[in-house]
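Predict both folds.
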Amino acid sequence: MVENLTIENDGKKSVSFVEQKVIDDLAAGKNGGKIQTRFPPEPNGYLHIGHAKAIAIDFGLAKKYGGECNLRFDDTNPVKEDTEYIESIEHDIKWLGFEWANIYYASDYFQQLWDFAVWLIEQGRAYVDEQTSEQIAQQKGTTTSPGTNSPYRDRPVEENLRLFEYMNSGQCQPGTLVLRAKIDMAHPNMLFRDPLIYRVLNIPHVKTGSKWNAYPMYDFAHGQSDYLEGVTHSWCTLEFVEHRPLYDLFVTWMKEWRGETDNIEDNRPRQTEFNKLNLSYTLMSKRNLLTLVNEGLVAGWDDPRMPTICAFRRRGYSPESITKFIDKIGYTKQDGLNDMALLESVVRDDLNSRAIRVAAVLDPVKVVITNYPEGQTEKLVAVNNPENEADGTHEVEFGREIWIERDDFMEVAEKKFMRLAPGKEVRLKNAYIIKCNEENACEKDENGRVTTIYCTYDPDTRSGLPGADRKIKGKTLHWVSCHEAVKAEVRLYDRLWNVENPRDEMAAIRDEQQCDAVTAMKQIMNPDSLTILKNCYVEPFAANMQVGSFLQFQRLGYFTPDIDTEAGHPVFNKTVGLKDTWAKKK
């Protein structure tokens, strides 16, 4: 049965069950009435939007209730870890708007964890096992039947100590010896059946060098690191619910080792689990994301089709839009699949208030205004952001020849076609009303493709003049001046996957076809997830925008300059459209 997940806080906005526990603990004076949290990523990949949910609560609640949050890298597995990932994690956290109090590493506690493990051996609570991993797994039993004891469970303490030292000597072969906690092989929680707490790797560590060859397992290192660091609230996702009793047991043992048994329940880290952030049409496992990168199925960790924080940044999401989305979906005790349309809706609302409006034409066709003086140009005023007057204005050039979107013209138009067609009038954004010639309306190339459209303009209808109020049936079109427009590359992104839940679909394909992950991935990837348009035109004001700027291409959507931009060759990524397109895709 699921508990009530939102509780009224003093009659104000409801709070999540996680926050309510913080409120209750502080009110009860637990841990001295303080809050200290940590965000503990493993530096084996780039952070994705699921991590942003943990970041928001770890840092956000600590700040809200006068505490602090540390960044602690869970570097207990030197096989997969890299300084590149450490740097990217730090950058992403800062970009999201959060600051840590301290940076720690699980490896900072390796000596204390080792000494603690030695004490457990001396207390008869841990032993060295030399069975294979397969033998150990077979002896674990099942959820309905107890396990059986290892034949090495009752080794003498002195022998265990000697073998434990040997595990770290560099001479012990990985997989031949492990250290196990001695708990209960009949315990209903399978994790209590003498769990592994140390294994041999013989791999140098990026921080500790060759000092350690035996490394602590996650379940042994995590809770103890929290305790040694003074963490009061440890938040993690729902798969760790079954790990919580083991977390608590190891912390209790460590407090006993340190002689800190007074008020043991009031002064300890408390683990609380919440649901993961899962998005439709999105794959979030770091293992699978690494496969996509290594196999060249995407252009890197920051490919805008990826769910990584750096990819969302490159695609043009603001950090505020991500945290607003997380706040909107909240924290519960039930896993679910969040709709990608909801994320894009939040992003769209956010960008509407901050994006600078500019003109860009993605599929251009030339318009010649025959009654506009040849060689003449004029400067018109464009509002940067109608949602924020403080963003000011900029100038755009208007002249005899302009570019418009090809689908804004139809030579033989339906009656309801309200854009440019022979005999029809339209208004040009920030400029004039123009009318397409009824005769000789356009020119075409040898393939019948329209190359030039001929129009006239009404000089009394310039934006800001009294004539601008003249009513017409046609729509208002965006445009750019042929004389000053800058050629640009525009990248249009769609979902990377053709199925709503790619994780489950991949698993089903692999099970049915007995194939590897890459083969399964290729069967469900969207071949149209990226479209590159190389013959677009943008106004100079847009071409000069810096990477990280938020833009709205009028009538087209929200865009941002890409890091591939070079002098004279601007590149833009589409962030999100002006309207929701997910419903019709489904």
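Second protein follows, with its predicted structure tokens after the sequence.
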Amino acid sequence: MKKIFTFAILALLLVSCNDFLDMTPRDRVSEKTIWSKTATAEYSINYLYTYIWDINSNPTVIGLTESLTDELKYTSYNYNALCYIPSEFSYGGSVLTTTYVDAYLGYWGTLYTALRRVNADLNYLHSYGQMEDADKSRLEGELRFLRAYVYFELLKRYKDIIIYDEDLTAIVKDKELSTEEDGWNMVQSDLEFASEYLPAASEANGRINKGMALAFITRAMLYAERYDLVVKAADELSALGYKLESTYADAIGKTLAEGNTEAILQYTFDYKEGITHSFNFYYTPGGDYTVNQSTGGGYGVPTQEMVESYELATGGFPDWSAWHTESGTSKEPPYSRLEPRFQATILYNGAQWKDRNIEPYVGGTDGWATWRTDKEPKGKTVTGYYLRKLVDETYDVNTSASSQPFNIIRYAEVLLNKAEACYKTGDAAGANAVVKAIRSRVGLPYTDKSDSELWKAIRQERKVELAYEGLHYWDLRRWEAADKQYPEGLSGYQQHGLKIEKSGDGFTYTYVSVDDKERNFPAKLYRLPLPASELNSNSSLEQYPEWK
């Protein structure tokens, strides 16, 4: 994948008449030169922007974290990192050794590499920056936002971590862990600085801005359980003019350049400029490739459990018991009667896509594959569904390049962060108002709730509104609900799909499992283990107690 930012500075270096004594590097510009002026400092920071996309697009070695929940199934049994390992990981048990978990879910080394670069650049800015004070504070705001972003990712995975700042003289070989509270203190301080000194989006020329910092406060401070800060930042963000798009599909697919009022931190791409990604190749319906006599798509598909998470367009959940039979039923599922977010998120049998209808049945254009038996589905679905959300309907399968935008933070999440914070601080009215606003956008009715019913409503909206945006797995860990029995948690259940077969003028739908065994989330996964490389190189560290 080509990244959106590149960093290249070319310069001519003066040549000394005495080559033997001349110690000037000839393959790079000095940090003093780069950080003395605003324009060159911005170029250096541009490179760091790529960390945001890298962490978001590759949250694990095993693909989307939704595959560790009831939302997504990777289809192949024949490949490791993508696709069988996500299922094996979800079964828990003895396979979850420190080495295994670090290899497939850990991110320690990558995040600390990013952190070292950000801290070094902060040091250079303070040491060499000769720009106007306003520019210097703005650039520091960008760097501190990036540092907070990296520390957030470390804290949500590891809790107690090693903290370094821009004082490069404090870097030592052996350093103890700091407390989780100290980590959140740093994240809060960095984001508050950023929100104070960064300009509004309209004045930021596409760079990190005040709205991004405020939005990220609402996400990070939920983890820190500093709920008053979440509400305060959400309200300040609202005052900047962010609001929900009128349609859910526009909230996801519309770019900032097209006037998306909901996108706050969005990565955009340009096919003509070669700034692309490869999401479509993995998640496009397999039939798109079949009609072009090629192979691709369908690596990850939605589950029946996720489909059943959606309400009817009129409110309330349909009764799916008629389709929970291994003998099959010819009764047509209520797909067409489900709410707009389902229609914008999941492709199902007969759904319109491009210039055709989706055919996820045995012998159909998209086709059906049996989990584990068909080790290489080659674009066929194992659940009867494909992703629509985040996939580009205009995508040309003759190329692996994709250019649709990705929202890393959007206003709907900010509102739901506020709803949760209001609930946690006893403000039921504030929480209900947010849930009602989110549901009103898609035409769903809502009656104010309290206590456990209000909490259930907030969880429901986070799951369906933010589906496949990389948040659900981390939400369940953050709530410490993941180790509980399904549907509250991620233990004691299997994922399912509907096997679809032609039957006369209609179809037969058969309920099938797409797992080898029941899934299990052990409580020790609430914190990932320290990697062996860090333990071996840092004598001041011991493995976390739950992983000893």
